[in-house]
Design a protein that fits this description.
The structure is a homodimer of 386-residue chains.
Chain A: E1 6-10, H1 18-23, E2 27-34, H2 57-67, H3 87-97, E3 101-107, E4 116-118, H4 136-151, E5 156-162, H5 166-176, H6 194-207, H7 220-226, H8 229-241, E6 247-250, H9 253-267, H10 269-273, H11 280-288, E7 295-300, H12 301-304, H13 311-316, E8 324-327, H14 337-340, H15 353-364, H16 368-383
Parallel strand pairs in A: 2-3, 2-5, 3-4, 5-6, 6-7, 7-8
Antiparallel strand pairs in A: 1-8
Helix pairs in contact in A: 3-15, 3-16, 4-8, 4-11, 5-6, 5-9, 8-9, 8-11
C-alpha cells in the first residue's frame, strides 16, 4: 500500500486550514531536550546502542544538527539493532527547508557542545521518585518566555524533542490528566514494550496513591509527579507562541501528552494563576491567551499507523480537539538495511522528524520517493564518509 | 547645540549604504552578558548602586528586558549617584521596534531567571590573572554557531552586551591587538577613571611580560590573557552572521575592541585554523567568510562625543575600516533628574542602548525629542508605579 504524503490522521473542522496557514510562514525549528532517569529503567528506552549510552542520546542528536555528526558519541545515536536516530530525517528536512533552528535545554544529564536556550538545568528523576520534575512552574514560565521570543520571529514554529524514556512519561502524564493511555502509546521498539511501561506507570500511580485524572485540577502536578522536564517547557512555548503564529507539536505520543497538558491548563486558569513568583503574572496572562486553532501535532506514519499503539484513541480523548497529521515516510525501498529496519518498528520518531519531514514535503512539494534519497544522503555522509 | 539624530562619527566609503541595508530587514536584538572579576577591582566599574551589586548588573539588565523589572535586584541596576541602567533606553527602543531578542550567556557569576543562548558558562577572571578567559576557542566557536542560527532568521542583527568592567578589558584587548588605547576609552563614570584603568592594563601587560600588539599573530590570545568572555562570543556571532545579514555591534569602546578582534582574526586565518577540536573546521570556514561590509558599530552620543575618550582615534586604528554611528540622545530636557544626570557622564552606554535607539529612530523616523518621552515612560513604569 502506498501511503499518502501527508496522512490526515485526525482533523477537527476547526483546523481545516491549519496546514495552509502553516505554509504561509517559513518554518523555524526548536528541539527541546531533556533527561529523565525513567529512561535508565531496563526496557523503557531503546534510544542508545547500549543502556550506558542512553544519557548521551539527546546531546548527540542536537550535536548532529549543528555539526553533521555527534561529538559526544562516535557518529549519532543508534538503536541497539542498528538503525540510526531519526535525527537523519530531521537533518535532511532542515537542509531542504533551509530552516533556522534552536536547541532548548529543559534539563539534561549530558551537556552538548552547542548553544542552547536554557529553560531548565536539572534532569528529571524516575517517575517513581517523590518528585519526577523539580521546579515545574519555573520550567513552564521559561517556556512561555521562549515562546514569546520566537513568536516575534515571523516564522511558523515546529517544536520537536529528544527525550529518551519520553513515551513512558507521556503515558503517565496522560493518565494523570484523565486520558486512558495504558497500552496505547508508541515507542522506540517493535511492540513498544507496552506491558513494562504500563506496569511502571501503574506502580508509580499506586505508590503515590494517585488515580487516573488526579491532576485535572492542577495540571502541572502531572508533570511534577510523573512527567519529564520537556513537557512543561514545551507547553509554555506552544501556548505563548500560538497567540501569534502556527505551532506544530513535532512528535507522536509525547506531543499528545503535551497537548493534553495545554488543554488541561486552559480549562484550569486558576491553577496557573496560583503561580505567584515575582514577574510571573504577565507571562501567565500570555499563556492563557493561547490560540488552539494555531496548534496541531505532526508525527510519522510509523507512529500514527503503529498497530501496537492507538493514537486515534488518544487524540479523541484530548480535552480540546486538535489535529494530528503524519508524514507518509516509508523506508521499505531504501538501499540501506539500517533504514529498512525502520519498517520493522525499531525507530519511529524523534527530534521532530515526522513534523519536519511533513514540512519539507509540504513546502517543497515532495513525496516519500523524492524525499527518501535526501535522507539516505545524510545517512551516507555520516556513516560512509571516508 | 542640537545633535543630529544619527551622528556619522566615522564612515568609510565602503559602508556608504550600510544604514540603508540595515533598514531593509526587521531588527533582531541579542544581548550577550558576561562577568569579569576585573569589575570587582575598586574604581573599575560603576555598574551597580554599590560594589556588592556589580555581579548582579548583567543578570538584572536582561531580567528587565523580559519582565519589565529585575528579579535579582529591587528595580534595575543603577549608578551609585542615582541614574538608572541604560537598559531603559533599550526597553523603549525594543517596544518601539516590536523587535524580538535573545539573551546570550557567555559566562556569568549570577544566573538570571531568563532563557539564554548558552555560549559559555564560566565567568572571566581578573585581567591580571594568569588566564582571564578560559576556553576562549570554544567561546568563539559557540559564537559562530549562534551567528549561523541567527543569520537564517531574516533579520538585521543588533549585538549588544552587558559586561560590568568591560571597558577595561576592551582597553587591554585593543592594546594587545596593537591599538594605542590608553586614555582613549569611554566608561560608566565622569572622566571614565582613565588613570586607574590604564594603570591596571599596564600592570597586567607588565606582569605577563607582554607588549602592545603581542596578540596580532594569535588574536584570541588577547582575550585569553586580557579580555572578557563576551568578546570572543560576540566576534564569533558577528563574523558568521555577517556572511548573510547586516550586523550592528551595539556599544562604544567595548565594540571597537570586538571589531579589532574580528579584523585581527581575518588577517591571521592560520591562527584560527589551528583550532582542531572535532567539528570545528566548518565553523572556522564560516567565520573566515565574514563580510565586513555588513558590519558596523553604533553607540550613543555620550560615548562618541565623550571628551574624556577618543573614539575617533580608536576607529582610525582598526585593522579594517568600519563605520561608527551614534544615536543623538540628549537627556538635558528630561523631566527626571536621574535621566538628566546622563548628561554629566554617569551613564553613557550599555545593553545595546545606543544602537537600539539609533534603530528605533531610523526605522520609525523619530528624533531625540520624540524618543525621549518613550524612555521616560519606561523609567516611570519602573520607578513610579504604585
Amino acid at each position: 500500500m502506498t501511503l499518502p504524503t501527508i496522512i490526515k490522521v485526525h482533523v477537527p473542522e476547526s483546523h481545516n486550514d491549519f496546514l495552509e496557514r502553516l505554509r504561509r510562514l517559513p518554518p523555524l525549528f526548536t528541539c527541546t531536550i531533556a533527561s529523565t532517569e525513567t529512561a535508565l529503567i531496563p526496557g523503557v528506552s531503546a534510544a542508545g546502542a547500549g543502556p550506558e549510552l542512553i544519557p548521551y542520546t539527546a546531546a548527540a542528536d542536537v550535536e548532529a544538527l549543528v555539526y553533521g555528526q555527534a561529538l559526544c558519541l562516535e557518529k549519532i545515536p543508534e538503536n541497539p539493532v542498528g538503525p540510526p536516530s531519526p535525527v537523519i530525517i530531521t537533518m535532511a528536512a532542515l537542509r531542504e527547508l533551509e530552516a533556522p533552528f534552536f536547541v532548548v535545554d529543559a534539563g539534561n544529564a549530558v551537556t552538548p557542545k552547542v548553544p542552547m536556550l536554557t529553560a531548565g538545568r536539572q534532569p528529571g528523576r524516575e517517575i517513581t521518585a517523590p518528585e519526577a520534575v523539580a521546579e515545574v512552574e519555573e520550567l513552564f514560565l521559561q517556556g512561555i518566555i521562549i515562546g514569546q521570543q520566537l513568536a516575534d520571529n515571523h516564522h511558523s514554529l515546529i517544536l520537536g524533542e529528544s527525550v529518551p524514556g519520553g513515551t513512558t512519561t507521556a503515558m503517565a502524564v496522560m493518565e494523570a490528566l484523565g486520558i486512558a493511555a495504558l497500552g496505547k502509546i508508541s515507542g522506540s521498539m517493535p511492540g513498544n514494550n507496552q506491558n513494562l511501561k504500563q506496569d511502571l506507570v501503574c506502580r508509580a500511580l499506586r505508590e503515590k496513591d494517585l488515580q487516573r485524572g488526579f491532576a485535572l485540577k492542577n495540571p502541572l502536578s502531572a508533570i511534577r509527579l510523573l512527567g519529564d522536564p520537556m513537557q512543561a517547557v514545551q507547553a509554555g512555548i506552544a501556548m505563548s507562541a500560538s497567540r501569534k503564529i502556527p505551532v506544530l507539536l513535532a512528535g507522536g505520543t509525547q506531543m499528545i501528552a503535551v497537548a493534553a497538558l495545554i488543554g488541561a491548563l486552559l480549562e484550569q486558569p486558576a491553577a496557573i494563576n496560583a503561580i505567584t513568583r515575582r514577574g510571573s503574572q504577565k507571562l501567565i496572562n500570555c499563556a492563557l491567551k493561547a490560540q488552539l486553532e494555531n496548534v496541531a501535532i505532526a508525527t510519522t506514519a510509523w507512529v500514527s499507523e503503529d498497530e501496537s499503539a492507538d493514537l486515534r484513541s488518544l487524540m479523541r480523548q484530548l480535552p480540546q480537539a486538535l489535529p494530528l497529521y503524519a508524514a507518509g515516510l516509508d523506508f521499505s525501498t531504501s538501499r540501506h538495511q539500517n533504514l529498512k529496519l525502520y519498517e520493522e518498528g525499531y525507530v519511529k520518531e524523534g527530534v521532530g522528524a515526522g513534523a519536519l519531514a511533513l514540512c519539507a514535503m509540504l513546502y517543497h512539494d515532495l513525496d516519500n520517493l523524492k524525499f527518501l534519497p535526501r535522507i539516505e544522503k545524510i545517512y551516507e555522509e555520516i556513516y560512509l564518509a571516508g
